[in-house]
Amino acid sequence: MTRDEDDERCGAICYPIVKPLLRYAALCQGKDATINDLKDNIREKDVYIAQLKSKIELTNSMEIQLKDKETILHLKAIEIVKMEKDIGDREAEIHEKKDQISKMELQIQSRETLMQSKDKLIRELENQVNSLKRTQGKLVDISEASSCLPFTDATDILTIGLPGIGPFLVPCNSSVSGSGWTVIQRRVNANENFNRTWIDYKLGFGDLRENFFLGLEKIHLMTLSQPHELNPSKSGRRAQGR
């Protein structure tokens, strides 16, 4: 029997027995491949799950950080609200201060105006006082006048005083030959008698507004107190001195 014949006889007998085994082996090989694929898939899933866990942990950490930041933001918001309230209070205080400053400025302006008015009044009063002092000085000079010189431009009957005699009236003339002349004699008509005694000429006589003689005693005291000059005038036949 040849080899080929043996193979045919063996194949005819063995194949039905081995075929299921071969199928089972093939099936097992397929399942092993499937199992390997499943294992690979499981490993991939495990890796993916590990990645997901890592991401979840990261997410949880981020959530915690977010919560912390939310807490911080909430606290900051509270601080901002408080600061806004403080700013509002400060602005109200500043506004109140501005109102007070405006009122004070108005008061200052009013006081400055009042001070200016008072300064003006003080200057006016000072001018009045100075004027009164000058007038008082003139009055003192006039009250102590021993001739008509202090009366400047006066042309009238005025009072002078001399040591050794009480105040007396004299005619002062400033309309002729300048100011300050004391008229000691005047004869304008024949209504007054000039043929008099020594006593009359010593004491003086007549009407000071018309015909008169002032008196030798008064003329002596006037010229004794200070130098005088004599100005005889033919107009109205008068004599005057200063």
TrEMBL record:
Gene3D superfamilies recorded: Gamma Fibrinogen, chain A, domain 1 (3.90.215.10)
Alphabetical list of InterPro entries matching this protein: Fibrinogen-like_C, Fibrinogen_a/b/g_C_1, Fibrinogen_a/b/g_C_dom, Fibrinogen_C-term_domain
Cellular component terms per the entry's GO annotation: extracellular space
One Pfam entry name: Fibrinogen_C
PROSITE patterns hit by this protein: FIBRINOGEN_C_2
SMART domains in the cross-refs: FBG
Domain called Fibrinogen C-terminal: residue spans: 139-242
Superkingdom of origin organism: Eukaryota
Protein name: Fibroleukin-like
Originating species: Drosophila pseudoobscura pseudoobscura (Fruit fly)
Phylogenetic classification of the source organism: Eukaryota, Metazoa, Ecdysozoa, Arthropoda, Hexapoda
Gene that this polypeptide is encoded by: LOC117183990
